[in-house]
Amino acid sequence: MAALASTPFPPFSQRKLRTFNPVQCHGTPKEALEMSSNGHIKISTGFPEKGYLTRPGTSSPVPPPPRPRRIILVRHGQSEGNVDESVYTRVADPKIDLTEKGKAEAEKCGWRIREMIEKDGADDWKVYFYVSPYKRTLETLRHLGRAFERSSISGMREEPRIREQDFGSLLTSLHGLYTMLLCSFCFNLCVWSEGNFQDREKMRADKALRLRYGRFFYRFPNGESAADVYDRITGFRETLKADIDIGRFQPPGERSPNMNLIIVSHGLALRVFLMRWYKWTVEQFEGLNNMGNGNTIVMQKGYGGRYSLLMHHSEEELREFGLTDEMLIDQEWQKTARIGEFNYDCPVVNSFFTHFEDEGCIT
Predict the structure, then answer these.
(1) Where is this region: Disordered (predicted)?
(2) Residues of 325-336 as b/e, b for ≥16 C-beta within 10 angstroms?
(3) Most exposed of 104, 169, 333, 345 (fewest Cβ within 10 Å)?
(4) Among 107, 159, 164, 224, the one annotated catalytic
(5) How far apart are CA 331 and CA 291, in angstroms?
(6) Using one digit for the tens of pLDDT, what is the confidence trace for 84-114?
C-alpha cells in the first residue's frame, strides 16, 4: 500500500491518452475513414449516416447502397394471452409466452419467408431482423429463425419502439387494487415487482369505449393510444430509413440488393408502421383489420425503388386486410414511382375536396 501511495497519478491535464474514434474504434480518424464499411468514405468519421463523400483514392462520388429487396412485417405467433385473456391479470404483458401452437406458427412463418426469398433465384440473399423486446416476439423470432443458417443472417436488433401498445395498469381502479392485494395474499407472490397487470372486466369496458371513441385516439387509462404508438413508430421509421440509406445491415464490403429486412412485432404496432410509412389517414387506419398470428405483410421494392404492397400481395388480399380503393390506387403508383417522387394525383386529395367534381376530377 505504501508503494502505491508513493507513486501518485499525474494530473489529468498532463496525462497522454491514446487518440481513438469512440464510434469506429480505430486508432486515428484517418484509419476510420480508410476502414469505413461497405467501401464508403463518410463525411463524418464517427457517424456514417452524415453522408457519403468519395470513393477511396478518387474524387468520384459513391452511389448509395442498394435498398433491401423487402421489408417483411411479422406478427408474433399465438400467445397465451390470445387464448386466455385472464392471463393478463397475473402475468405482465411483456412476459407472456407463446403457446405451442404459436411456436409452430412462427417456425412455419420462417420457412414461408425463406421459400419466398429463394424464389428470387439469388445466391447472396440475407436477412436482418428488428424485434420487439416482448417475450412473445422474441420467442417468435427464435422459432422463425430456425429456417435460416447463420451465414444467411446478417444481424438482429432488439427495438423497444416497436413494442406492443401499453394498455394500462390494473391499479387504475379500486377493484383492481383489491384484486392485486388478494392475489398477493393468497399466492404469496410479490406481484408488485412483476409489472402492470390488467383488470379483465375493466379492460373489456375500455375496449368497448375505444370503439365508440375511435381506435386511433382513445388512450387507455395509464396506457397509450394508437396515436402515442404512432409517435414512437415515427422515431423507429427514421432510424430504419437511416439504416437503409447507409446500408448499415450490409456486411463489410458488400452491396447486395438481395437483403431482406424482417420486423417481428405486434398487430397494432405493425398497422401503425404501415400507416406512417404510406401516410395513411386516421380513417384509413381505423378501417384496417388485424393480422393473424404468425402472418406477414410484405413491402417489396418496386420497379422505381419504392416499396409497394402490390408487388407481393394480390388486390383481394389487401382488400381483406382493409385497404380501400384510394389506398390500392396509391399502392399501384408505388410500384413504378421512383425514390423522392411525389404523387401529385393523390387520390386522397381528390376525394377530400368535394368541389373538384365540378372540374371533372375522378374521386
Answers:
(1) 46-67
(2) ebbbbbbebbbe
(3) 345
(4) 164
(5) 19
(6) 988 988 899 999 999 999 999 999 999 999 9
The C-alpha atoms of residue 309 and residue 318 are separated, in whole angstroms, by 8
55 — pLDDT class (breaks 50, 70, 90): low
Q: 27: annotated binding-site residue?
A: no
Average pLDDT score over residue span 217-242: 92
Largest CA distance in the chain: 95
Percent of the chain residues past pLDDT 70, beyond the cut: 71
Residue 227 CB neighbour total at 10 angstroms = 15
Cell digits of residue 51: 453522408
CA angle 303, 308, 309 (to 5 degrees): 135
Phi, psi of 178 (to 5 degrees): -60, -45
Catalytic-labelled residue, pool 76, 143, 266, 313: 76
Q: Is 118 annotated as a binding residue?
A: no
Q: State the Cα–Cα distance between residues 19 and 251, nearest whole angstrom.
A: 27
The torsion region of residue 54 among left (phi > 0), alpha (psi -120 to 50) and beta comes to beta
81 annotated binding-site participant: yes
Listing DSSP states for 137-161 in one string gives HHHHHHHHGGGS-GGGEEEEEE-GG
Is 115 noted as a catalytic residue in this protein?
no
Task: Report pLDDT for 250.
Answer: 84
76 a known binding residue? yes
Give which of 142, 169, 143 is closest to 156, Cα–Cα.
Answer: 142
Judge whether 164 counts as a catalytic residue: yes
The verdict on whether residue 79 carries a ligand-binding annotation is: yes
pTM score above 0.85? no
The pLDDT, as a whole number, for residue 180 is 46
Residues near 56 by beta carbon (within 8 Å), at least 6 away in sequence: 34, 39, 41
C-alpha distances (whole Å) from 156 to each of 131, 289, 358 are: 8, 28, 53
Evaluate the CA torsion angle 83, 89, 94, 100 in order and state its sign. negative
